[in-house]
Amino acid sequence: MPRLIPIVFLALALLAAADAPAAEAPTRDEYVERLEVMCKPDAEATQRAMKGARGDVRAERLAVAARKFAKATAIFGGTVKQISAVPRPSADTDRLAKWFTYLNRQESYLGQITAQLRQDHGIKAQRLTARFIHTGNLANNVVLAFGFNWCSFKFSRYG
Amino acid sequence: MRRLVVALAALAALTATVAQAERAQRGNLIVSLDGGLSPLALPRDRPAPVAVHLEGGLQTADRSPLPRVTRIELGLPAQGVVSTKGLPTCPPRLLRDAKPPEALAFCRDALVGRGSLRASVALPNQGPFSVRAGVLAFNARIDGSRVVLLHAYTADPPTVAVLPLRLRRGSGRFGLALVGDLSPALGPWPRLRRFDITLFRRYLYNSGSRSYLSASCPIPERLTAGFFSLAELTFRLADGRRIGTAIARSCRAR
Asked: Predicted ipTM?
């Protein structure tokens, strides 16, 4: 009997561990709600940080634009890190994995654009911007059914 | 007319190569917008004649019936120039009962574009059916305001609808707006599903050539291309909701 008690406890603990992720997994609506709360302040901060960036590029103030892109990159990276830690709806894990792949790619492009602007390489920055926008649109399409607002990519927020 | 054909062909080639339309979803409703400018290569420092092609749509994720659209708003960049000086206008009354050949006979000089509309019609006690209408766009003035007058005609069932899109000052990045209220006279049954329109017109005024639409690509000398917000589409629905999306496109400097 004394031996049976630890075995029962172990079995119960294993069962509880197996059940835990399923119990924590939110519904899609809950997930969207949690993410939107996180994305909203960052999206607004991005808008503020990028204000006038397109005008800076047009006026060839690439160093000024680079500083704005650097801020946007930091905000974007912070948001992705924050939202990637949120438990995902179990039915959407594959789709969200794809979304995060695109978001990571966008973050990388933003970093590369910043670097190219710092080095005064306007044309390279422009090519990377095309990829950044394209990847943003692909990311939006993956999570279209989620109906994100603040967490979706909007070109208009970038200056 | 030959120029219009060339512009349409160029736009067809362009839309075949660009990515699919940008889409946004609210609840089970999906709005989409696609489009482009032709030509893509534009002067940096002065506006040049362009054609603008836009395609928008509304669908439901679960294929449930579409809600009724009461207003369409199309935002366009403020850098675009709409010139109507010296361009003839078309009085709406001439289009109300006119088939396309008659509409063109009355108002060909005011023609500024063409397109199409698709709608689902759900009549009570009948299965829903689709209608496709050809669209002619004319320059007009209503109460002193500049208007793009859309003349939509479908042969089956034979129906003519005239929709004025008022040209207004927009806000923010979209400094121009085309706003059209769908008349309640159309009834509660037609539900707008898709539209596409290409606006382009060259005309002579004071022995000079002018273009209905012009745009530039204002980027620095050392850059070859730039990005800009081309258009924003917003549908206002009968239940008061609004749904919209915007698209960004590139231009090349020449």
From this structure: 0.72
